[in-house]
Amino acid sequence: MKRATVGGGCFWCVEAAFKALEGVESVTSGYAGGHAEDPTYQEVCAGKTGHAEVVQIEYDPDAIAYADLLEVFFTIHDPTTKDREGPDIGSQYRSAIYAHDDDQLETARAFAEELENEGLYDGIVTEIEPLETFYEAEEYHQDYFEKNPNDAYCAMHAAPKVEKVRKKFGETAPADD
Question: Which of 58, 64, 113, 165 lies 20 to 30 Å from 22 when distance is taken between CA atoms?
Answer without folding.
Answer: 113
